[in-house]
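TL;DR need structure tokens for one chain.
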Amino acid sequence: MLGIRAEADTSNERLAKLIRNAEKDKIPVMGIVGAQEVESNSVSIRTRASGELGVISVSEVIERMKGAIVNFGNF
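>> reply
TL;DR here they are.
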């Protein structure tokens, strides 16, 4: 069984502030989901190691997370 810790920030803060707060808190992987991502069943991903990775399908995000957990590597 694999597991990850996740939190959702549903506050009314601006996106830029939410990203800045996550970077300040040293969050390793951020998934940003807005109306476009919901429509396309995808997630916009940012990592501390690589920065903006772009919009990725939900199924690919799951596979990358599994790989990172199993291999103790970066997303």
